[in-house]
Amino acid sequence: MTNTSSVLSQLREIIQDSQAEYEQLQREVSELTVLLRQTIAESDKMAQRNTQMVKKLREMEMSIDTYTREDIRNIYATAQESQMRLFMMREQVEQLKAKRTNLERYSQHLGRLLGVAGQLPQQFDDGAAGGDLAVLQGAPPQQAIIKIIQAQEDERFRISRQMHDGPAQSLTNLVLQAEICERLFSRDQDQARVELSNLKKMVSKVFQQTKGFIFDLRPMILDDLGLLPTVRRYIQTFQDNSGIQVDLQVMGRERRLVPHAEVALFRIIQEALTNANQGGHATNAKVHLDLEGDSINVVIEDDGIGFNVEEALVKAHERRTLGMAVMQERAEMLGATLEWDSQLGQGTRVRLQVPTGFRVE
Q: Is 336 left (phi over 0), alpha (psi -120 to 50) or beta?
């Protein structure tokens, strides 16, 4: 009887919390609807400005000989910037729509759950509580759904920024270089050949950038070969691009892990090295993977400038900076322990301990 009373008390608290979450969801959906309406209006205005910019670009192309190289560069850059801003604004509209849809779906689910929950006390008296309690325990928590949505939005924004700063900007320069080559062929073929050689080098560079971009998004060898070959490949590329020397140490027999564990481990290592480069200004780093025991232990160290861990974690969760919040979420998905050890001027050490159950023999 005491156990039943305790369960009933906990159940009432769950219902009260669910009711509060449901009301909060309703407010969030209303706020999102207003924000979405404003964003769509802004997107429409940006589309009109982009149409005008495209028209100006076409006018320039019709009489390109009358424009200086600097004018051509500026017009192309402005057009590209306008198109990219429109792309990002439309992407934001899609993100808001997706977020609203997910929140509405969860709100509907929670509403149905609350409707059923109103009948649970009597079902407890009838001895039928076990099944309904199991249904409640299986219900998806709001925080998990919000984290998934936020992770999707963060990833889309990161991709948009990388596209803008990388391939998109480079492709704009390729178009400009091609226009210059075209103009020179009828005037100075020797100079045109020089410019064409420069164009070839630029194409090769953009190709390499795009390959790196694809690898960052989802390295295919992670699925084909597993964690260690992917880490080795990434470290080599990371060293070439950053100038940071990375020492990789592996203990134990190389074995495959379940796919989601390999992805999470790779991303945590990737983010730790990125932080060592961008925020830590390190010159040397070390990645140690211990696969000998039942658990998996990973340590990433660098000789960078270090930071205050407590302050950084607070900022990371408030503004999702430094990638620390995302690293922590990935570790939690594995039931792993993730710790940072760092002080100003003394470098950084990241420790990750993953429990058993992820190996594939």
A: beta
Q: Give the dihedral of Cα atoms 302, 305, 310, 313; nearest 10 deg.
A: -70
Reference 267, options 214, 231, 301; nearest CA is: 231
**50 with 82: CB under 8 angstroms?**
yes
Positive/negative CA dihedral, 308, 313, 319, 321 = positive
Instruction: Please state, in angstroms and as integers, the Cα–Cα distance from residue 337 to each residue in 140, 203, 231, 299, following that order.
Output: 23, 44, 20, 12
- Kindly give the confidence (pLDDT) of every residue in the chain, 361 residues in length, as a single tens digit, with 9 standing for 90 and above: 455 566 667 767 777 777 777 778 778 888 878 888 888 888 888 888 888 888 887 888 788 778 888 888 888 888 877 777 777 777 778 777 877 777 777 777 677 777 666 555 444 444 444 443 343 344 444 454 455 555 555 555 556 666 666 666 677 677 777 777 777 777 788 887 888 888 888 887 777 777 666 666 667 778 778 889 999 989 998 998 889 999 999 998 888 888 888 888 998 999 999 889 988 889 999 999 998 877 899 999 999 999 888 888 887 766 654 578 888 888 888 889 999 999 888 899 999 999 877 766 5
What is the number of helices (H) and of strands (E) in the chain?
A: 12, 7
Q: What is the dihedral of CA 163, 219, 240, 160, to 10 degrees?
A: 10
